[in-house]
Write a structure and sequence with these properties.
single chain; 276 residues; alpha/beta; Rossmann fold; ProC C-terminal domain-like fold; 8-stranded mixed beta sheet; 13% strand; elongated; EC 1.5.1.2; P5CR_dimer
Length: 276
């Protein structure tokens, strides 16, 4: 049976799992005008405060996952990886091929998701935590029966909380090592830069503000200028100046190699975990 096209002007979206990431995506989708809140639903089983978070956006909150599936054309599974199998198997009788299924469960492969659901109109997405402030980096991989149109639709949903890319699923461990775990490396860098400012005599609050804004500004220039980061670095580095003295110190201590190793180590760990 061919996948039935989902009408982008009137489709309904459901979240199975009402955690922080689901809330971030729902908030972005509503605030950007991609979907009105009346066409979005989720289910709350235990924690009433999660329901309040969704209701405050105008989103329908049911008490059972089955109600969400019945009401939705596109279903995002945003539950923890260890429970996704049970949740999909419980809902399997309702998961017809008319419904486009999406998983954001880290480390859970498309072939398993498709097997549990009974069909392969599935898209796997790896978002990251800056989605909470609309600055996420999400990568998606399409299952066998997911159409290009399905991919565009999911790209639009996740585009509401940042930027999206499409990639082969075999690259997802590397994606996890870079954009999935990467925000933590940058928080460490911000903290260390602020500590450096304090060591050089700045008050803590000023040092932290300057460090955070400097990282934000540098990232924005890297994204918006179209220049290679090496060129942007050269633009700041004058002969015999302060910046080259700092860069020399970073190079002596293997700064670039350390960051490269962090990404590779996290990717390797992701690979190990997804085999379990």
């Amino acid at each position: 049976m061919e996948a039935v096209p989902i009408q982008s002007e009137n489709f309904k979206l459901g979240f199975i799992g009402a955690g922080k990431m689901a809330e971030s995506i729902a908030r972005g989708v509503v605030q950007s005008g991609v979907l009105p809140p009346q066409r979005i639903s989720t289910a709350i089983h235990s924690n009433p405060s999660r329901g309040t978070a969704f209701q405050s956006l105008g989103i329908s909150v049911y008490s059972h996952n089955t109600d969400v599936v019945d009401a939705s054309d596109v279903i995002i599974f945003s539950v923890k990886p260890q429970v996704v199998k049970n949740v999909i198997l419980q809902l399997r009788p309702l998961l017809s091929k008319k419904k486009l299924l999406v998983s954001i469960a880290a480390g859970v492969k498309l072939k398993d998701l498709e097997e549990w659901a009974g069909h392969d109109r599935f898209i796997r997405v790896m978002p990251n935590t800056p989605s909470a402030v609309g600055m996420g980096a999400s990568v998606m991989s399409l299952g066998g029966a997911a159409t290009e149109q399905d991919g565009e639709l999911v790209g639009k949903l996740f585009g509401a909380v940042g930027k999206t890319w499409k990639a082969d699923e075999k690259l997802f461990d590397a994606v996890t090592g870079l954009s999935g775990s990467g925000p933590a490396y940058i928080y460490l860098a911000i903290e260390a830069l602020a500590d450096g400012g304090v060591a050089a005599g700045l008050p803590r609050e000023l040092a932290l503000g300057l460090a955070s804004q400097t990282v934000l500004g540098a990232a924005a220039m890297a994204v918006q200028s179209g220049k290679h980061p090496g060129q942007l670095k050269d633009d700041v580095t004058s002969p015999g100046g302060t910046t080259i003295a700092g860069i020399h110190e970073l190079e002596k201590n293997g700064f670039r190699g350390t960051l490269m190793n962090a990404v590779v180590a996290a990717a390797k760990r992701s690979q190990e975990l997804s085999k379990n």
